[in-house]
């Protein structure tokens, strides 16, 4: 066989997903050139790099991380870790965010990734260009980046891994009359710690992970918290005094908030824990035949690649997953595609599969904003990717522990983080006896 030149990969972002992409690209030097990682900040870690400031960096770009000071992970380290890189044994199962940042730094060291990262370099444009004669019809990607000192640079690649994260751009659902609200309006993206909320009345919108966690933090500094949401009642420890209400449907002219059940309240602060928008300012969606909305990117074959351009990969756009495991499977699948190990279906077949899948979900009543939620379906998805890509799928013990953690979290969304687990083998885990002391 004629020896082809090696594949050149660009990675946008040096968070967990980008580092994972780099680690696996570097593991196959016969096929791939060392990757180029573009990172707009001066550090790796993305979300896990705690940034006290809110608003913008000195260079005017919006602050990336939504991490808050006291966050502990909502997954135990046993199911958070990259499969080939465990967390330190001495750490408790549920980690403070600083331990995750340290973990990513060690990952970077072990796989010798750092010197492939171009820090302070923002990707401004990613554009497919066809160079039919040279590459036999394959697409080449033009990546235009700009360094903090203002220098623009253009490089070409055979493949692009989009790892820019999707927990940075606040999603703010419109509330009729919001202009009448006299208090402070805030999104969880700009929440860092509870002290400024002491003795204040706060309506928290949304009862997903951050809505629940932040409500608990606020209640502990004596804020009067109303958790407003449309989901079934969350079981919260009664001593915290957190009230729950239906969704806020509007703000009255006198500034009070009206809930769906008709009741009305006043509040000092309205805190949106309503999630984040997808944002790929460096892409032209129409050019890629993609529909990119606030809460949906489609069509993506295997939630990963646009059928019309199967050499650009969107890592980690699914929700309710074990992110690091998810990234690892997606990256291995993507590399198998680039290596030619996976023969993808035709463009039409991939489009049909994606549309069929979305249609099935919609027929089951899944709302558009939830189409990318995987949750229990993630394990079947990993198996599917692994089978096609010929790599080892995540162990069954991970799914089993994931389900256990869900049960514990539902029972007590505060205390579940005191538990410590240990993986015994491929199918079994155990609960360790001594509860962790650090979570209180
Ligand atoms: C508050 C919070 C709590 C979480 N808790 C957990 C948890 O307990 N367990 C868990 O597993 N996951 C958790 N997550 C999910 C978390 O987002 C993932 O674990 C993971 O960090 C996502 O990695 P990423 O690489 O996709 O994105 P990010 O970590 O966001 O990294 C993206 C990187 O891309 C860079 N970038 C963006 N745009 C550009 C550009 N144009 N050019 C160059 N660089 C760019 C950014 O600067 C950033 O460094 C949490 C998320 C949040 C927000
Ligand atoms: C909160 O209220 C308590 C009780 O009224 C008071 O002692 C305390 O000083 C208040 N704290 C702040 C920061 O307002």
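-> sequence recovered:
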């Amino acid at each position: 066989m004629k020896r082809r030149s090696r594949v050149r990969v660009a990675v946008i972002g040096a968070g967990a997903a980008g580092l994972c992409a780099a680690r696996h690209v570097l593991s196959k030097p016969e096929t791939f050139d060392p990757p180029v990682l573009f990172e707009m900040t001066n550090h790796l870690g993305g979300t896990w790099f705690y940034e006290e400031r809110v608003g913008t960096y000195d260079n005017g770009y919006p602050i990336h991380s939504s991490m808050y000071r006291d966050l502990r992970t909502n997954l135990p380290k046993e199911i958070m870790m990259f499969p080939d890189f465990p967390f330190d044994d001495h750490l408790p199962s549920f980690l403070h965010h600083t331990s995750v940042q340290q973990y990513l730094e060690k990952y970077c060291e072990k796989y010798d990734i750092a010197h492939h990262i171009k820090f302070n370099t923002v990707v401004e444009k990613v554009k497919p260009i066809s160079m039919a004669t040279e590459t036999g019809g394959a697409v080449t990607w033009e990546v235009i980046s700009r360094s903090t000192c203002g220098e623009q640079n253009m490089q070409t690649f055979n493949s692009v891994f989009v790892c820019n994260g999707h927990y940075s751009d606040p999603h703010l659902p419109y509330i009729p009359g919001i202009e009448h609200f006299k208090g402070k309006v805030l999104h969880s993206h700009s929440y860092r710690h509870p002290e400024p909320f002491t003795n204040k009345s706060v309506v928290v919108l949304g009862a997903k992970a951050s809505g629940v966690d932040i409500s608990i933090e606020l209640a502990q500094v004596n804020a009067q918290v109303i958790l407003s949401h449309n989901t079934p009642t969350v079981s919260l420890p009664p001593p915290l005094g957190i009230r729950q209400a239906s969704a806020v449907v509007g703000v009255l002219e006198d500034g009070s908030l009206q809930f769906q059940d008709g009741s009305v309240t006043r509040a000092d602060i309205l805190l949106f824990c309503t999630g984040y928008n997808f944002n790929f300012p460096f892409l032209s969606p129409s050019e890629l035949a993609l529909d990119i909305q606030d809460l949906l990117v489609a069509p993506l074959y295997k939630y990963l690649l646009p059928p019309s351009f199967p050499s650009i990969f969107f890592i980690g756009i699914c929700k309710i997953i074990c992110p690091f495991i998810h990234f690892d499977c997606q990256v291995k699948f993507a590399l198998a595609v680039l290596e030619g190990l996976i023969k993808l279906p035709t463009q039409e077949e991939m489009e049909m599969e994606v549309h069929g899948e979305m249609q099935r979900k919609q027929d089951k009543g899944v709302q558009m904003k939830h189409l990318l939620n995987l949750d229990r379906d993630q394990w079947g998805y990993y198996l599917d990717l692994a089978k096609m890509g010929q790599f080892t799928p995540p162990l069954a013990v991970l799914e089993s522990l994931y389900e256990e953690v869900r049960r514990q979290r539902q029972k007590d969304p505060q205390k579940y983080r005191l538990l410590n687990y240990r993986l015994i083998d491929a199918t079994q885990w155990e609960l360790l006896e001594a509860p962790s002391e650090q979570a209180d």
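The mean pLDDT is 95.
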